[in-house]
Structures are given as C-alpha cells and as structure tokens.
## 1
Amino acid sequence: MAVLEREGGAIQLTAPFTEEKVRSLKVGDMVEITGLLLTGRDAVHKWLHDGNEPSVKEVDLKNSIIYHCGPVMMKKGKNWVATAAGPTTSIREEPYQAGIIEKFGLKAVIGKGGMGEKTREACQKFGCVYLHAVGGAAQVLAERIRAVEGVYGLETFGSPEAIWKLRVEKFPVVVTIDAHGNSLHKEVEASSSSKLGEIVGKIGK
Amino acid sequence: MNKTLETRLHDSLVEIIRKTSAELPDDVFKAIEEGRQAEQAGSSAAYAMNIICDNVDIAKRKSQPLCQDTGTVLFYIHFPMKTDYEKLQKLIKKAVVTATKKGYLRQNSVDSITGKNSGNNIGPGAPVIHAEPWKKDHFEIKLMLKGGGCENVGAQYSLPDSRVGAGRDLKGVEKCILDAVQNAQGKGCGPGILGVAVGGDRGTGYSASKEQFLRKLGDRNRNPELSALEERITREANELGIGPMGFGGKTTLLATKITALNRVPASFFVSVSYMCWAFRRQGAKVSNKGEIQKWLY
C-alpha cells in the first residue's frame, strides 16, 4: 500500500495519480488534490461516448482526472479566470462514464451526488475513484484554482460545457466510491430507504 | 418612463441580481449554521457544512456567485398601475444581460432544439417574469435563482399513487413528500428546503410550490394543519440520515413549506420543489423613482 501523506485530517494527493495511490483510498477519506483537472460535463461525455476525442496535443485525457463542472469564466486581459467552479450532478453521465474510464484510463472522476453501478464497477475494475466535491461551494473551489491552462471546444460546446484545464492546489473532496467496490451513496441510500419504510409504516393507512 | 427612471430601475435590478447571486439571505444562513452545529465534528457531514459556511463568506466578500449554476432566473414583481409594463419587461431583460456580462450570472440559457447557448440568459421563457400591477406607488421586486441540480429533483405525484402507498389524504401527501426527499438524495445539494403545493393542476401546482420559497424559513404557516405537517416532515426527513450532500448525517432538510390550492374532483396532485442549500432569493422595495429603499430578506 502507498503511504498517504496527511495534513489537517485530509490526505494530500498530487496528480497525476498512480494506480497504487488510487487503490489505497477508501470511502470516507477526505482528500486534497494538487495538479491538473479537466472539466467535462453533459456535452463532452456524450461526444466522447459517440467515439470522438480531442488530439493528445490539445487535451491529454490519458490517466487524467475529469471534473463534472461548468464554471463561470471571465477573461481578464489574455487570461481566463474561473470565478465560480463547483461540481454539477454526476449521475447524468452514468450512461457514458464507465466507457470513458476504460478508454482513457481515468484515475479519478470528481462531481457531486455520486454515480451508479456501472461506474462503481468500472472504478473497481480499472483503478479509478469517484471524488465528491461539495455542491454549491463554487467560491471555495474556485479559490483553489491556481491557473486556467487552456480550453478545448469553447465554440462547439459553449463555455459551461467546454473542457477547461484547471491547475488546482489543495482542492477539497471526499472519496465516496473507491476502487474496491464500495460506494457511500449505495450505503446511505440503503439505510435511508429502510428508515423510510419504518416511518411510512408508522404513518399508516 | 423617462430616461432617469429607466437608468435607475436598470441599475437597481442589476444590484438585486448581484446580491441574490452572491449573498445568502440571513434566514437561510441561520438555518445552515444550526445544521453545522448539529453534525459530529470530524465527520464528512461536518466537513461539507464547514466548506458551505466558508463558501458563503467568500462569495459575499468577493461579490461573486455562491454557486456557479446561477440557475433559472425567476422574477416576482409588483409594479404601480401607471407603469409602462412593456418598458419594464425590456428593462428586466437588459438588466439580466448586464448582470451576465458582469459575471453575476453564468451564461445559462440554452436553445432546447439546437443546443446553442444564447450567451446572455435571454431566450424563449428566459428570464421567467411573474408580474402584477398593484395600487401602491412603489415596486416590489423579488428574485430567485434556482439551480438545475435541485430543479431536476422536483417531483409531482398524482394521488392515489400505489408506488408510495399514498391515498387521497394528508397521510398520502406526507408519504409522497418523504419519497421525494429519499429520491433527491445526493442530486439536489443538501441540506435542502422543500416547497410543496397540494392540489391545483400540473402547472399551477409546480408554480405554487416554488412560490413557497418566497416565505422566510422561520415563519409559521397560518393553516395549523399544514403548519404541523411542515414540522413533522422536516423532522422525519432528518431521521432518514441522508445528511449534507448525501454523506450521511443529521441535517437533510432545513425547512418544509406547504400550501394548498383547490383541485377538480378528478385530480389530486402533490407538487414538490426542492431548493438546495445555496438558496438564492432576495427582494427589494424599489421607489417610484427607481431606487432601492429596503431589502426584504
């Protein structure tokens, strides 16, 4: 097992991740990421799933981290600045994610709300993790972006849907699907479902 | 409308959009702070609540969107009888364009057929404007920015509904609402707030459920039966243990607000709208000279 460096309770990880590091993470771990994230959401996932891909020179998806995010971007002089950059709901990418994890060897997917069985299985099989960022926390997350290193597909996909290359430092997330087949979403759904059954039983007919 | 009034009203509208996008109303922040204290220190739930509170501070300080999804732009307006309403509509749209350029709103309006983003938040059905004239001589302008994540988990039930064991009575209503909370987990950013309408038709039901979000979180429903139901549902939802962001924890809902509309005998709808913790709504009393006189939340 890889030795995990911790700071203030959060595991410090530098991207790109090795498979060993990914496999050492467990559901519930709080993690801070330093390195490159690529945003990608609905339009990009469908586009990749349809068999398209950017040239490696433009965007290198191999072993990368995809962030489900449609940021608010402003141009300041020649540079882009992300002024708000929280996660979007991941489950919409469920039909596409597993195939993309396999094809590009993604090491992590960041989003919110968790994902389904196909993604959970792909994480286990191909050594990937799902990392949950706090939804709505667009400012905390935007502050951790040190630089916007480029954009792909701005014209085709529009600003929220484009692939933005974000260089981040100490980007805070929680592991909610690990590479060992565990999913916090599955656990919480099962326990809340059984509790709901009890409450509904008490309400009666 | 003369030019001075137009300019002032436009600037006031932009300011209302800015404040709504960047600042969480006090009543909502108070409920979030209570939720944070309820979570166990060191848990993922507490971690999420701490990040949420930091986020509220930063957004306000920097005057930047609390959440990057600046949502559907929904105006609720009362205007003096003598107002040129066509002009007012144009001013509202102009203010939305200005606010988008300034980055208070994300480019968030997409043509549903071509997929093209209009780039300025204007298009068929955008922004949403509910406006009524009134006899007072000032404007009341309320604004809600409702993100897509929480809008997507709204649900409408037609009773009886055997899937959730709901008959045509308040017990049935209660079961539908709790089912909606269970299904929303993770997807709408919790802790959330529910707006519910019992009755109406499919359109008015959803509209009225959203309007419940104009109520302050700490207020009390004037209908004692609905008031009791609101409290019970919040308590029961929190017993589900879904917690902030669906990480597991004590705070699943911050509040529930319910209204009732008459229905036709054949229909019995329960319409549930979910609002995320990034509950962006603000409002202002605006004078007939176009100046903001008072914030309403």
## 2
Amino acid sequence: MDLPETSCDVLVVGNGAAGCLASTLLAKRGYDVCMVSRGTTSTSLSTSRTSLSGVSRRKEVTQLLRGLGAAYGLFGSHPGKGEGITSLGSVVRQDLSSPHDWLCTGPERTAVLGLKGNADLDPDLLCRMAGRCDSIGECRPYWADLGLPSSIDAGGGPTITRESRVAVEELAEAISEMDEEMVIIPPLFLGPRHDLALSILERSSGRFIREAATPLSNPGRRLQACLERGALDSGCRLLGDRQVIGSLAQGHELREVRIMSGLREGTIRFGALVLATGNIVSGGLQVGCDGPYDPVFGLATDTCSTGSLRSPALTTALSVGIRNREGRAVRKDGSVMQNVWVAGSACPGLSYPLGRGLGHVASSALTIAEMVRGYL
Amino acid sequence: MSSSERYMPEVLIVGGGATGTGIARDLAMRGVEVLLAEAGDLSSGASGGNHGMLHSGARYAVTDPEAARECATEGEVLKRIAGFCIEDTGGLFVSLPRDDHAYLDRFLDGCRGSGVRAEEISICEALRSEPNISSDIAAAVRVPDASVDPFFLVWGMAESAREAGATVLTHTPVTSLHVKEGRIARAVLGRGERRRTVRPEVVVNASGAWCGRVAAMAGQRIDMQLDKGSMVVFNGRLVNGLVNRLRPPADGDILVPHRSSTILGTTSGPGTLEDVRATATEVEGLLRAATEVLPGLSTARTIRSYAGVRPLLNGNGRGRQASRAFTVIDHSEGGVENLLSVAGGKLTTCRLMAEKASDAVMRRLGRSGACRTMLEEISPPVIGGGSFQEEVMRRKYGAFTGTILAECIGSPLGREEACSCESVSVGELEHFAASPDVISLSDLMRRTRAGMGYCQAGLCVFRMASALDAGEPRREIERFLAERWKGISPVLRGEQLRQEAFKAHLFKVHGIDHTREG
C-alpha cells in the first residue's frame, strides 16, 4: 500500500529546532510547507537552555524565540548574561532563560528536593557537586516520597489540570517543612502551563521554586512541543514517522523524494527542500567503517574542527555535516543543488555538542528561510 | 571496617581472583582460619579479563592433553556447583574448506584420549543449530563448552568462603612480607589508616600475573610470562552456543554468547601488568579472522574491546604453545618454608587449582581435612518463580538473590530500573553500594553488570554514582567513563559511534568529556 502523494512549496526534512523554526518562518510568509519527522529529535533530548553568545542577528533571534516561547512559558526573561545550573552542579551559559530556571543569582540558601523514583535529580549528588562550586550558594538535600509520576501535564488552558494541582499541593506540603528560601525541584510539569504550575507552587509555599537543567527529560520535551506548536500554528503540515529513503533529481534541482513509513512508501514533490536532519545523532547521516556519509542524496560531507572532545574519531563524526555553498547543499561531484538548503545542525560546526546550541540554529533558520524565499 | 580489628589468620591468601577466592573457599570449608587480601577489587586481573568460556577441554585436546583432561572434568564440576553463573549452551568446532583436514582426526583422537565428549555432526545439523555461520563449513564437531560469567563466579566463591568463615578484604594490598629465619614471620597489609600486620603460618601467593612481584617481596623469584589476549564484545547474541574454529589454536577463533552479548577472542602477544587494553589493530585482526566463520560479523554492532593478561609460567613454551596446566610452587627450596605460589592454569580449572593448593597448605599446617568444594554448591541454579524482574535477578545472583530481592522489590524506588541495557534495578545498586567491598563505580559494575551493556554506562552512570555516594562524584564518574572509553575507542564505528555521539551530547551538559583518559 502506498502513502498518498503529497506536493508542497517547501519540504522540510527534520522536525528538530532547525526544521521547526525554518517551517515557521516560511509558512508565516504564506508558503505551503510540509515537515517530515522521523522520531526523537536532539532538541527533545536537550536541556532547552539557550546561549546567544556569538550569534549573528541576535536581535531577530531573540525576538523569534521569545515570540514562540511566550505561549509556553519559555524564554520569558529579558535576555542577558546568565548561568544555569545543571542537575550535577555544573554551570551552563544561558542568555534566554525562563523565570523558573535555576541561575547563579546569589548566595541564597537553597534546598534541593529529590523525589523518590524520579531519576532527574539526586539531591545528595547535586549538593556534593555544588559544594565544590564557588558560584553556587549553600545547598541542602531533601528527599520526599510523594509517589508522583516523572512528568505531569499541566495543560494548556486558563488553569492548570487537576492532576498537576494535586501534585502542586503535595509538593507545597513537603516544602513547607524546609527553612531555605529557594527550593530546587526536578522538572516535573509539561505543557504550556508548566510555568503556571510552578508559579502556583511558589505562591502556596512562599519559596522561590527553580528547576535544574536536566538533559533527556521534560525541559527538552517542552522546547520540542513549543517549537512544533509554533510551526503548526503558522500553517505548516507535519508528517510524522516518515523517513526519506530516496530522491529524484533533474539537472541541478531536486524534484521529489521517496519516503517510507513502516512498510508503506510514498512520494513528496516540492519546489524547494530544506535539510534540517541534524548530524549522525539524529539520523541525517549514517556512519560506516570509513566515517560518516549521506545515504540518500549523494551529497558531500564536511568536517570542521570546533571539537572539544579528546577523541579525534568522535570529534570528526560529530562535527561532520552536509557541505554547503552559501546555504545550498553540494553534491559529491562538487556541483551545487540549486533548490536544496541545509539548515541548523547539519551545518558543520553547529552540531551539538560541538556546536553552540539553539541560538545559532535559530540564526541559521532565519538566513535559510530568506534564501528559500529568494529562490521561490 | 575499623583498622583496630585484629586478624589472626592461619593462612594468608594474596589475590582475589578465581584462584585466590577458590583457595579461600576450599580452606575455610576445611575449617582453616583464612584471610584473603586483594589489592584491588575481586576479579580485577585475568579473572575478569577473559573470554567467559567454560572449556570442555576440546580446544587443548591436540596441543595440551593434560589441560584438556583437567578442563573436561572440572567443566562438569563447575556446571554443577556454580550453575547460577554458567549457561550450558554447548559449543561447535567448525572448519572451513581451506583448513587442514587431517586436523579433524587428530582433534577427535585428542578429545577421545582426554575424555572430552566430542561428536562429529553433519553440516546440515550444524547450520540448523547455528544459522548465522558460513554455509561453506567443511566439518563440524559438537562439544560440551559453556559460557560462564567470571565476575559472578569469583564473587560467588568469595561469598561462599565468607559463609564458611573466611575473611575477604578487597582494596587491601600486601605491602611487605618479612622473612625471618627461613619463613615469613609477618605480612603488612593496606596503607595509611587501614594498615595492619598479620602473622600467618602459611602464605599462599595466588596473585596471577602479579605472582612474580609478590614472591619477590619474600626474596623469591618466579619466572612469569605475561601473555596478553584481546577480545571484542558485540551487541546481542549472534550465536546460540560457542563457535570455535577447528584448526590449531590461533587468533579470533572463538565466539562466546555471553549474557546480552557475544564475545569474540582472542589474540596472543606479550603483555604488561599496567594499562592492559586492546588496540584497534588487534580488533581489526580479530574481526577479519572471525568473519570467515560468521560472515555477517563485520556489520554487527561492536560495543567495546578489552584485554587480559594470562599469567603463564616461563619454560612451558611461549604464548599459544605454552601449557595451560597449573603449578603449585613450594618455596621451601628457595629458603622460605611457609610460602606457596600458584601460577598458570585456566578459569575452568580454578576449583582444581584451589584443591591442589589447599592440599599443600594442609600438609604444611600438619592438619587433615578433605576437600569438599566439588560437593557443595556455590549456588544452585534457580529456576523460575515470581515476576520477570525476580527471575532475571535469580538467574544473575542465584541463591544470593534472597536478601537483594527483599531490598529491591520492597520499595517502588528499589524496583525502578537503573540500567536498562542489563536490566539492573536501583535496589540492586544500593544493595551492592553498601558493601564494604565496593568503593568505586567499576566495583559496582562488576557486582551488578550495570554499565556493561551497549550504552556503556551512558545513561546509568549518574544513577550508579548516586547509589555509590562516593566522596567526589564527578571525579569518580570521570574515572569510570575513562575506563569504559579505553575499551570503546578501538571499536568506534557504526552504531556504537552514534551511541558515543549521543553520550557526548548528554555529558556535555554536565561538563564531562567521556573520551578523556587519565
């Protein structure tokens, strides 16, 4: 059985930060945009923390992210230098923060509340790590066994869901026994109103409630949901569980791709293609014995040496991306694909963890969206 | 454990590998007061760095009949007494058209002569039991090889020794042996606050590759030959039973299905005591050799590589030709009457080595007492019952499961999965982290297998650190990851490269470079 044939102005491959942002920008301009997603994105596994250091078009990037984040309680604070604290007590740079991010703000006494069964935050471990870091004030570990799930949907309505209200009450009761003015909790709440749940918790407990940066957990899922919502709201179509398996070129332009979903295959025709597939982590490139390669489009790959890891092999694999000339993808024979652009992490040097994160991805999406508009 | 605690053992055993713990168990069961001192963790030497193969003896049938005979009997004994850590998968020896056909007859003769139950089977039957192997094979012989988890075997023997009254101290190096009037008068163990002196009647040196060093403390000389063997670990079980190449022993001959993985080995070459690791060249050689038998192997996912040092005695031939038989060396001829060293041998024969060494100790003590180690089970194989999680644990910890189970299943937190590659629960981690034997994340891994799976501690390392409660968690995490990385870097390609890229992503958030060594 075949998938229905689809055609669009712009096909965006990949629904991570780069794909979502490029789709949003193009769909807002009135183009018919389709975005295909394969599965988990690196964005959804990130900490959602954002640094703007060295980002070009910083003002526009800030405006874009704050605009999209507003409905989701993300990036709400004024952009400025900030340092967030991770669940292991290390410090990450962060310019666009949310009111409940745990930043280095001063020598407040801090309580760290671990919830039994929640692997995101081990207060003992965090406090011992934090004890060695001068910029973090005094931390004290607490444990509570509240039987809460590790993610709770706070909903998207005017008030928070009943489930999250119950959780807030239980947390407030556990917190009421503490002396500290600031309490760190694991990132529990999901959904656009997660920040409202935290604000209610602040009001009812009388403490500042903060979250530590934890990867592979709810913060990344929030960011992913926020960016995907932005793309959908601007009119983009999202085709889930699709993997690109082949392509058809006409001269120096790509006309269609074959996609696969489970056992079904189909074709998508398009005017322009944006590759936002990330590097090998998210599945854009494959890794063979001789190193990474592009299995579908016959495109050339490039490496760059922004690496900070000790292993050269891993650095090479991570910093590899699809070679581009002014944003346009380059084939193995050196010719330029006129209607294929490379956005975000697939650009050498932008791939996390060797790259520099969401700020740069957003800046790349802005540039690529303009180029695609110019072409169309 | 306070350093003021006084130990007055009759026998001091140096080394906590398969030999040392075996002797401790044997002597304790004969009623002797023993103290075992291990410099690092249990099975941190060759007992942990081997193939995890319980030899039927077939591999040595042609070259080393004595070792073959010992393996044939001892393999069966271990299956009986240590069933909890042995998978009786059976094994095949297969030859390819280019291999020497005359070897088959010599092999079958050798097996018959050494009492190894070998049976030639048809090619069809061989391919039915091992569908992944090359259809070009020319001959196949079925043998009763098995797969053994050495970490659990050694730990089981140590626990069994403790139950019989032995004292087992890990992370307690012997720092000096003082010889006075032709005998070791006292031995100093541990350093700093943990330093203590013991005055044993007999000292047994069972320190494997370190035998020469320990003997030298008493002015004795043992000529050791350190022979390094490297192995590669693949994700998942690629073979149903052991698959050996039917030819004179060479590199990359053996594939062992082991727990959630398959182990390919080995190489043979000069080894050292420090920094034992496999190289990318060795890995490549192993893969090339084994691909002939298992054609899909080059595309299989390699998880890691590792190496161990065979503690062979010099003068018995070199490397592969060296005899795998063991020797109990009596140092009274060299002028120290109460020192015995045990050298050579194989994991499969560890119980027999212990028995022979213990007999010698008993003679030296002038006491009598028969060996009971082949009669009493370390832990019987446990079958079925309870939840899936309970069954997984029973298969892993055998009869020792009881107490761990109470802690794991008792609380919701304990049931939580900490390492999903190897299905290890938080409760298991906490149980073993509380043991005085376990001071590092590597120790915790050897007890529970957390971190041994395909993500190589990518996701469980923080939960392990959180259970261990080490003084300096970050440094401990970095040290542990560096140790993992040593094994990963020679096999970095394909799916494992993706995995490591993902780990780099994850660890960067915490400011940890998992590829950094030392």
